[in-house]
Specification:
Blueprint lengths: L2 H15 L2 H21 L6 H25 L2 H15 L8 H14 L8 H12 L5 H12 L1
Helix pairs in contact: 1-2, 2-3, 2-4, 3-4, 5-6, 5-7, 6-7
């Protein structure tokens, strides 16, 4: 089942259950997918493109969530936290810290990285492998730790 089919099915279910938050998030995801289709001039998006859009939406919400927590806006924090949880339902299963560390170690060995100067090479080797399965900042910290 494609992401769009899943979203349509979940949207119908949310309408039946009168789940306004979930319905709102699903509509937002569908709108983002539609906008990307229009921008690219395509009829269909690949799984990779869909994952990129979902990751972008999730990252925006996580960044906003952090800002609202800092500003003490608990009303908005709760709303965004719900949106993040709903968005994560459509993301692939996240890698554990151990799995992520193994990927980082493997990438460091593949590119023969020895210092922090090789950070870009390591990151460019890792990111395609873990796209949507791990947070970039978390990977960045692990790579820095391994290269220091």
């Amino acid at each position: 089942m494609t992401l769009l089919e899943q979203l349509n099915q979940d949207m119908k279910q949310a309408m039946k259950e009168k789940d306004k938050e979930k319905l709102s998030v699903i509509r937002m995801i569908k709108a983002s997918l539609q906008n990307e289709l229009i921008n690219l001039g395509k009829d269909n998006l690949s799984e990779d493109e869909e994952l990129t859009i979902l990751s972008r939406e999730l990252k925006q919400r996580k960044d906003s969530l952090q800002e609202f927590k800092t500003a003490g806006r608990d009303d908005l924090v709760e709303k965004l936290d719900t949106e993040v949880n709903i968005l994560q339902e459509y993301m692939p299963k996240q890698l554990t810290d151990e799995e992520l560390e193994a990927v980082v170690q493997q990438a460091i060995q593949e590119v023969n990285a020895t210092s922090k100067k090789d950070m870009g090479k390591v990151m460019s080797a890792i990111m395609p492998k873990v796209k949507g399965k791990a947070d970039g900042t978390q990977i960045n910290k692990l790579v820095q730790k391994q290269l220091s």
